[in-house]
Design a protein that fits this description.
InterPro entries (chain A): ABC_transp_permease (IPR001851), BCAA_transport_permease (IPR052157)
Radius of gyration of chain B: 26 Å
Helix content of chain B: 55-70%
Oligomer: heterodimer
Order of helices and strands of chain B: HEEHHHHHHHEEHHHHHHHHHEE
CATH class of chain A: Mainly Alpha
Structural class of chain A: mainly alpha
Order of helices and strands of chain A: HHHHEEEHHHHEHHH
Number of strands of chain B: 6
Number of domains of chain B: 2
Low-confidence stretches of chain A: none
Strand content of chain A: 5-15%
Helix content of chain A: over 70%
Largest interface: A-B, 66 and 64 residues
Organism (chain A): Chelatococcus composti
Largest sheet of chain A: 2 strands, antiparallel
Radius of gyration of chain A: 19 Å
Mean pLDDT of chain A: 87
Number of helices of chain A: 11
CATH architecture of chain A: Orthogonal Bundle
Largest sheet of chain B: 2 strands, antiparallel
CATH topology of chain A: ABC transporter involved in vitamin B12 uptake, BtuC
Low-confidence stretches of chain B: 1-17
Shape of chain B: globular
Keywords (chain A): Amino-acid transport, Cell inner membrane, Cell membrane, Membrane, Transmembrane, Transmembrane helix, Transport
Protein name (chain A): Branched-chain amino acid transport system permease protein
Mean pLDDT of chain B: 82
Pfam families (chain A): BPD_transp_2
């Protein structure tokens, strides 16, 4: 029981991070129907940016308060990663709109290979560790010498995810930008006819996805305290699984899917085998796509002849 | 990295066919300036600082603004050149693109026998050029590597180019083939010639097993599930230590023999059997011809299959799956045969890989390999056999050239290793290829059926399939 509760907490924390990345996949897929394969590497890049900003803020500016430092790092990482997201869309995906169907996917694979090797070449292949930022834990209850603990960083991660989800949900549901996005999602040509700047809307979707990936990257760094150039691929695939599981195109679905994937991964590691946890995630992806392609909260796709 | 040219102002006064006005140069300069500024923004902090570890293992930031300045300058120049070129293009009278002129077709007629001739005499040519068989070791090795990728490309071409099923996990079958030979030969001591067909059959079997669940999926979803299968196979190879020896891999796999005669200096070895002096290069040359034959078999089988009902069904499936089903084609069996036959050739190539290396480990079968093979097929212009061969030479041969560019060391300093940038450039090239030539190098296709006269058709008329 104690182990289960502890794994539940860990799983929800991990799931929050996956959920934040998954939103980027789901929004891009919703609007242009393309799997942004490079999104996992954008997340990895943002974790590196956060790491360097953190070093900059603590060592050079000498800011002692962790809370202020964390907020500066997160906002800085969001801005810089958004710039990357915008540039990648402009360079690698926009010229391919209207090209043949496989082109964006192959281009995205190219971007993914480029990003991970760019980080490897510019920062080295080693793991980059930083000292833990937040150490304190709250002991929820203790039985038979096993303490179930909820750490401050887990609280920060879950709260940040909840707040950001609320903000982005508000943006998509209530603002003119969100309306434009949903219109493009339904029918791009019609949206253009009624005066929506489709290119700009798609660019902003990429920017939003990248900035959420940057939040995920900052949280990942806060949680694990270490990042390496190869950390983009597997979390990326898992977050994509989360997006599909929740129903691709659905924002709450992405977070729900993220939480489920996080729970499956931690519980699988705790009760079965930690070596096969990635196999479990990949198998789940295959099973979901084959048997439930529209996901939990998604709309079923109708085949048009 | 330059921005795309789509928003470059590109209207010129009539008559200025090849010259560019001052105003246009100013515009190009402005565009280039914006691109350089953007690069500066992107460089912070990831390129402008390097994270280094000090004595106590704590990270600190090491500024390197010089690199940023160089990169921004390069981007400025590239963007400027691209802008000017786009303007000049727009000023020139528009030309209609013919699908394939008779001259190009004739060129292709010569190209195939030429390629074949060079491929057949390659070890001889290499040893003549380098002065002796021993000196040609590197070149023959490179030839073997390229031919392995040609074969893999042709194998995947059946699945992606002909049947239109996007498979991102092709390397799984390569791995199955390699591990089949490695395990069968080290456990039972079976010879390569017995294991080769077995490896192909096992890989085809896995093609059917993995193909069956994904029959209903299409497009990007199919791509992602095949990617997941490829990763699952790799992870199982890493973690199933009792069978595969895990990440350490299987070593001391038996070497290839000349139909039972070993390549060594012993009494009944290859050299003494033919009465020539022993050279370790005999095995290399034999391996070269082995992979050449395997690749050519793949090619011939593919060409013949295209004429059979099953091959025609593959192409029909690629063009329109719903029409296929309406006409009573069994799409399930058609897809499964495409997966199985593509996988079989992957398995053959895999067991060749194992016998060449003498060592297999899961690290050789990561997702990057799948991406390389797929980009060979796409760069070749999906469905074109010649294109795949040319693309394999470019994709595998060009990075090797990079390794040998010694003068770069003199420009950038002694600790500059061009090989580090191999994959970086590879990723960029994939993007550039999709932006400039999404239809691949070879722009025309051979029709699979003709009534009276054989005409080439434009590649853009060929669909890329739904699944």
């Amino acid at each position: 029981m104690e182990v289960f509760v502890q794994q539940l907490i860990n799983g929800l924390t991990l799931g929050s991070i996956y959920g934040l990345i998954a939103i980027g996949y789901t929004m891009v897929f919703g609007i242009i129907g393309m799997i942004n394969f490079a999104h996992g590497d954008v997340f990895m890049l943002s974790a590196f940016i956060a790491l360097m900003l953190f070093l900059f803020v603590t060592a050079w500016l000498g800011i002692g308060s962790i809370a202020i430092a964390l907020i500066i790092v997160m906002i800085g990482a969001m801005l810089l990663t958004s710039l990357w997201g915008w540039t990648l869309e402009r360079m690698a995906y926009r010229p391919l709109r209207g090209s043949f169907r496989l082109a964006p996917l192959i281009s995205a694979i190219g971007v993914s290979i480029f990003l991970s090797n760019f980080v490897q070449v510019s920062q080295g292949a080693r793991n980059k560790p930083i000292p833990p930022m937040v150490r304190d834990v709250i002991v929820l209850f203790e039985r038979d010498g096993y303490a179930v603990a909820l750490s401050y960083k887990q609280i920060i991660i879950m709260l940040t995810t909840a707040v950001l989800l609320a903000i982005f949900w508000y943006v998509v549901q209530k603002t003119p930008l969100g309306r434009a996005q949903r219109a493009c999602e339904q029918d791009r040509r019609m949206a253009a006819l009624v005066g929506i700047d489709v290119d700009r809307t798609i660019s902003l979707t990429f920017v939003m996805g990248a900035s959420l990936a940057a939040v995920a990257g900052t949280m990942y760094l806060l949680y694990y305290g270490v990042v390496s150039f190869a950390d983009g691929f597997v979390p990326g695939v898992k977050a994509f699984t989360a997006a599909v599981l929740g129903g691709i195109g659905s924002l709450p679905g992405a977070v729900l899917g993220g939480l489920i994937i996080g729970l499956v991964e931690t519980l699988w590691s705790a009760y079965f085998s930690i070596e096969y946890k990635d196999v479990a995630a990949f198998s789940l992806l295959a099973i979901v796509l084959i048997f439930m392609p529209s996901g939990i909260l998604g709309r079923p796709e109708v085949e048009k002849v | 990295m330059a921005l795309n040219t789509s928003h470059a102002p590109a209207i010129a006064a009539p008559g200025a066919a090849s010259s560019v006005t001052g105003a246009q140069v100013a515009t190009a300069l402005r565009e280039a300036g914006i691109a350089a500024l953007l690069t500066l923004g992107l460089s912070i902090p990831i390129l402008a600082f390097k994270t280094e570890q000090n004595q106590s293992n704590a990270l600190y930031l090491q500024p390197r603004w010089g690199v940023v300045a160089v990169v921004c300058g390069l981007i400025f120049l590239v963007r400027f050149a691209v802008c000017l070129r786009a303007m000049r293009r727009a000023a020139a009278p528009a030309r209609l693109k013919a699908p394939a002129s008779p001259f190009v077709q004739k060129l292709f007629g010569i190209a195939v026998p030429l390629f074949l001739g060079v491929a057949l005499t390659y070890p001889l040519l290499a040893s003549l050029a380098t002065g002796g068989l021993a000196g040609a070791r590197y070149w023959i090795d490179l030839g073997i590597l390229i031919l392995t990728y040609v074969m893999l490309g042709w194998g995947l071409n059946i699945v992606v180019g002909l049947a239109g099923l996007l498979d991102l996990g092709y390397v799984a079958f390569y791995a199955v083939g390699a591990y089949s030979y490695a395990l069968l030969s080290t456990t039972f001591g079976w010879s390569f010639w017995l294991c080769l067909p077995l490896a192909g059959i096992l890989a085809a079997f896995w093609g059917i097993i993995l193909g069956f669940p994904v029959l209903r999926l299409r497009g990007d979803y199919l791509a992602i599930v095949t990617l997941a299968f490829g990763e699952i196979i790799r992870l199982v190879l890493i973690n199933w230590v009792e069978l595969t020896n895990g990440g350490a891999g299987i070593s001391s796999i038996p070497r290839v023999t000349f139909f039972g005669v070993p390549f060594d200096s012993s009494e009944n070895g290859f050299a003494s059997l033919f009465g020539i002096s022993y050279s370790p290069m005999h095995r290399m040359v034999f391996l070269y011809y082995l992979i050449l034959v395997l690749a050519l078999v793949t090619n011939v089988v593919t060409i013949r299959l295209r004429r059979l009902p099953v091959g025609r069904a593959w192409e029909a499936l690629r063009e329109d799956e719903i029409a296929c089903r309406s006409l009573g084609i069994n799409t399930r069996n058609t897809k499964l045969t495409a997966f199985a036959i593509g996988a079989m050739f992957g398995g053959f190539a895999g067991s060749f890989f194992a016998v060449r290396q003498g060592f297999v480990s899961p690290e050789s079968f990561n997702f990057l390999e799948s991406a390389i093979i797929l980009s060979i097929v796409v760069l070749g212009g999906m469905g074109s056999q010649v294109g795949v061969a040319v693309a394999a030479i470019i994709m595998v041969g060009a990075p090797e050239l990079l390794r040998n560019l010694g003068f770069l060391k003199q420009v950038f300093g002694a600790d500059f290793d061009p090989n580090e940038y191999r994959l970086l450039i590879f990723g960029l090239a994939m993007v550039a290829m999709m932006v400039w030539r999404p239809r691949g190098l070879v722009g025309h296709r051979e029709p699979s059926m003709v009534l009276t006269e054989r005409k080439a058709i434009s590649g853009s008329l060929v669909k890329e399939g739904h699944g």
